[in-house]
């Protein structure tokens, strides 16, 4: 009987996260409704402990555990820290929104933490089965989160749509994985990468599996033309849940895409780069053009997600460490921007008022200048206006695209980014130059929320002026 | 005759695989939803048979026990109880059929061109193990040594499933009548019966 050395010290962050989540499950069972603060604080504490554990292990620690099923490297450390930070922000933003709608229950925190565990496993998966399991852990938790508001028909519809299309995407991914397994006889990412090219007869089978994996990834990322679920889910889900599923899972999906495409299928890069560039251009076009027509802020941000995914894919296409680092930088910045933009909606919402139409923001500057300014920072950062961090994300990706000699892709990206700037500026115009119309959105009096959201907004400016350390870590993740 | 005996396994594989595909097609095309569920049972069963042919006895039997025995029976109960009118759901089927067929044929052509049926012959089944090879033992050894990490994650996924199921279904609706046995046991006579003192009425006057 050979039992593999469990290497528990490498998976300590996940162990802490799982242990803390289960502890929270027990504590929450006995907490009364007015003791929900305890769950809230405990959830933030667990996320902080997980991030602390990643830091305590050392950012540069590398190694594999569980027969290569678990991979610890700089990329996974950077992504885990970002995921913990963004998820903690989402939890802080959501508290008052949930309390106003009788949704402030322990299940919300539990499902969010389980989803974070899934993401954490996903970004350090070293084997196809672990990728699939991590993905499903994340996806199942988010399906349930979307459906959490049971009496809302929109939310139920969104949950069913999300579930069915998510299952379809998982099926595609699994089908592609099974072909890769059939061609290489291995589930290990490193073995698959080493096996490619060894046997001519199986190369076409691998190309075929790659096509399915790209489709599955595109579904999960929300890249056009596999984006149909995204606007409905973002609009239908409770805004607190949209904030979460619109931010942290994008980081995990980036990690998964990198592990699968570069880690396992790096030898087939010429077949997947063409697929990805088509997806990227389609996402940029559909995302930006469709967002112009939206009057609902959540739906508009959903289409904006599609266009940002296009930018993310542009970084992946290059197949160079610089390109990957740019994409990672972009993903982290986007997660922060997106969480912040939805966070402002949560801030302005109150009982019986969702503040999700652009018209609801009209004249916000006169009533709440600070809230309007924070929203301005997020919108300008999403649009990519210097000196905010969104601009540097776009710049970095475009630089990598041009260096790789794909000028037409860079031109298309710039054209669509300029078109996209229109609808972000329209929100700013509504806040600063329009007269208020009936709606009187005011920021909620929740100190934790206002401080965290203001910090997030100012971080857009701060990171835009001082982006050196973050990009340095992004570069180290791929060197 | 020898040809048949020599290729018995291949013939059996094609028979089971064909049955599997045909019944899967029937699942999505029959009108009656109970029949569809029964065809799904047949699909699982034929898939289990092909697994048996691939010498994965344990997995084949597990598929029959878990999916046919437990999941599908539950599913049948639900289908029978819900009384779904599927005719309405199927109205678009014929209308979209031509488009669907075109897409399916295109995908099939892509597969044939890309993989090349003949080139597939390089990939065969793994070595056939000897008679004293225990499938169950091999699965168990793999599961609890090489894949123990994945096994544990699967356990976490099941925990999430329980939490999600409870969060989405457990609720107290206003107006539902349910028993509270503790209350019933604790009840005292004074809670149920109220003795009201009333002045006794006088003799009714008899009208004349």
TrEMBL record, chain A:
Record keywords: Cell membrane, Membrane, NAD, Quinone, Translocase, Transmembrane, Transmembrane helix, Transport, Ubiquinone
Membrane-traversing stretches: 12-30, 42-62, 74-94, 106-123, 129-148, 160-184, 204-221, 233-255, 275-293, 300-318, 324-349, 370-393, 405-425
Pfam families cross-referenced by the UniProt entry: Proton_antipo_M
Gene Ontology terms describing biological process: ATP synthesis coupled electron transport
Listed name of the protein: NADH-quinone oxidoreductase subunit N
Gene field: nuoN
Subcellular location: Cell membrane; Endomembrane system; Membrane
Matching InterPro entries: NADH-Q_OxRdtase_suN/2, ND/Mrp_TM
Subunit: NDH-1 is composed of 14 different subunits. Subunits NuoA, H, J, K, L, M, N constitute the membrane sector of the complex.
Membrane topology label: Multi-pass membrane protein
Any Gene Ontology CC annotation: plasma membrane
Reactions this protein catalyses: a quinone + NADH + 5 H(+)(in) = a quinol + NAD(+) + 4 H(+)(out)
Domain called NADH:quinone oxidoreductase/Mrp antiporter transmembrane: residue spans: 125-419
Annotated family: Belongs to the complex I subunit 2 family.
Enzyme Commission code(s) on record: 7.1.1.-
GO-annotated molecular function: NADH dehydrogenase (quinone) (non-electrogenic) activity; NADH dehydrogenase (ubiquinone) activity; quinone binding
Domain of life the protein comes from: Bacteria
Role according to the record: NDH-1 shuttles electrons from NADH, via FMN and iron-sulfur (Fe-S) centers, to quinones in the respiratory chain. The immediate electron acceptor for the enzyme in this species is believed to be ubiquinone. Couples the redox reaction to proton translocation (for every two electrons transferred, four hydrogen ions are translocated across the cytoplasmic membrane), and thus conserves the redox energy in a proton gradient.
From TrEMBL, chain B:
Pfam families: Oxidored_q3
Reactions listed under catalytic activity: a quinone + NADH + 5 H(+)(in) = a quinol + NAD(+) + 4 H(+)(out)
Bilayer topology term: Multi-pass membrane protein
Assembly with partners or alone: Composed of 13 different subunits. Subunits NuoA, H, J, K, L, M, N constitute the membrane sector of the complex.
Protein's UniProt keywords contain Ligase: no
InterPro entries for this protein: NADH_UbQ/plastoQ_OxRdtase_su6, Nuo/plastoQ_OxRdtase_6_NuoJ
This protein's name: NADH-quinone oxidoreductase subunit J
GO MF annotation list: NADH dehydrogenase (ubiquinone) activity; quinone binding
Main location (coarse class): membrane
GO cellular component, one term: plasma membrane
The enzyme's E.C. designation: 7.1.1.-
Keyword Lyase in record: no
Compartments in which it is found: Cell membrane
Recorded family membership: Belongs to the complex I subunit 6 family.
Keywords carried by this UniProt record: Cell membrane, Membrane, NAD, Quinone, Transmembrane, Transmembrane helix
Function: NDH-1 shuttles electrons from NADH, via FMN and iron-sulfur (Fe-S) centers, to quinones in the respiratory chain. Couples the redox reaction to proton translocation (for every two electrons transferred, four hydrogen ions are translocated across the cytoplasmic membrane), and thus conserves the redox energy in a proton gradient.
TM stretches of this protein: 12-30, 37-54, 60-84, 96-117, 148-170
């Amino acid at each position: 009987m050979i039992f593999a050395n469990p290497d528990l010290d490498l998976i300590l962050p996940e162990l802490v996260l799982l242990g803390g989540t289960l502890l929270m499950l027990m504590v929450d069972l006995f907490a009364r409704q007015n003791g929900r603060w305890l769950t809230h604080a405990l959830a933030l504490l667990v996320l902080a402990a997980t991030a602390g554990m990643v830091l305590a292990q050392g950012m540069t620690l590398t190694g594999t555990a569980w027969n290569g099923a678990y991979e610890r490297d700089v990329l996974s450390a950077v992504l885990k820290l970002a995921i913990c930070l963004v998820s903690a922000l989402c939890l802080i933003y959501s508290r008052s929104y949930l309390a106003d709608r009788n949704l402030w229950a322990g299940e919300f925190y539990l499902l969010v933490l389980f989803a974070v565990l899934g993401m954490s496993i996903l970004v350090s998966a070293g084997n196809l089965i672990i990728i699939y399991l991590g993905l499903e852990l994340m996806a199942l938790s988010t399906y349930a989160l979307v459906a959490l508001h049971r009496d809302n028909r929109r939310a139920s519809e969104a949950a069913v749509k999300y579930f069915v299309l998510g299952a379809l995407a998982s099926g595609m991914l699994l089908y592609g994985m099974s072909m890769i397994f059939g061609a290489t006889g291995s589930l290990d990412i490193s073995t698959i990468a080493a096996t490619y090219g060894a046997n001519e007869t199986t190369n076409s089978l691998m190309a075929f599996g790659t096509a399915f994996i790209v489709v599955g990834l595109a579904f999960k990322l929300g890249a056009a033309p596999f984006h149909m679920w995204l606007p409905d889910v973002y609009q239908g889900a409770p805004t607190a849940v949209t904030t979460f599923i619109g931010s942290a899972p994008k980081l995990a999906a980036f990690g998964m895409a990198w592990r699968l495409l570069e880690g396992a299928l790096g030898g087939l890069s010429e077949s997947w780069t063409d697929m990805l560039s088509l997806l990227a251009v389609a996402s940029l076009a559909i995302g930006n053009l469709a967002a112009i027509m939206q009057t609902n802020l959540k739906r508009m941000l959903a289409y904006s997600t599609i266009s940002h995914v296009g930018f993310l894919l542009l970084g992946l296409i290059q197949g160079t460490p610089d390109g990957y680092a740019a994409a990672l930088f972009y993903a982290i910045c986007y997660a922060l921007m997106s969480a912040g933009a939805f966070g402002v909606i949560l801030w302005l919402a109150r009982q019986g008022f969702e503040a999700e139409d652009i018209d609801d923001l009209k004249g916000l500057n006169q009533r709440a200048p600070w809230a309007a300014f924070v929203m301005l920072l997020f919108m300008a950062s999403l649009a990519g206006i210097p000196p905010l961090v969104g601009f540097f994300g776009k710049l970095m990706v475009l630089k990598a695209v041009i260096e790789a000699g794909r000028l037409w892709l860079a031109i298309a990206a710039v054209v669509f980014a300029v078109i996209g700037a229109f609808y972000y500026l329209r929100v700013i115009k509504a806040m600063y130059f329009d007269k208020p119309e009936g709606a009187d959105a005011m920021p909620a009096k929740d100190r934790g929320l206002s401080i965290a959201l203001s910090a997030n907004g100012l971080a857009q400016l701060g990171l835009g002026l001082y982006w050196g350390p973050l990009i340095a870590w992004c570069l180290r993740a791929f060197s | 005759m020898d040809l048949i005996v020599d290729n018995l396994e291949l013939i059996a594989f094609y028979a089971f695989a064909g049955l599997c595909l045909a019944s899967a097609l029937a699942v999505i095309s029959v009108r009656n939803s109970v029949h569809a569920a029964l065809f799904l049972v047949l699909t699982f069963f034929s898939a289990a048979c092909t697994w048996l042919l691939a010498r994965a006895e344990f997995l084949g039997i597990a598929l029959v026990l878990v999916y046919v025995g437990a999941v599908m029976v539950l599913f049948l109960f639900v289908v029978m109880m819900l009384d779904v009118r599927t005719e309405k759901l199927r109205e678009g089927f014929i209308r979209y059929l031509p488009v669907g067929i075109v897409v399916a044929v295109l995908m099939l052509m892509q597969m044939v061109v890309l993989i090349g049926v003949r080139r597939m012959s390089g990939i065969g089944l793994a070595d056939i193990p000897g008679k004293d090879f225990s499938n169950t033992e091999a699965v168990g050894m793999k599961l609890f040594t090489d894949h123990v990490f994945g096994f544990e994650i699967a356990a976490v996924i099941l925990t999430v499933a329980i939490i999600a199921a409870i969060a989405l279904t457990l609720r107290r609706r206003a107006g539902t009548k349910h028993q509270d046995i503790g209350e019933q046991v604790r009840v005292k006579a004074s809670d149920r019966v109220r003795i009201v003192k009333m002045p006794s009425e006088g003799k009714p006057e008899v009208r004349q």
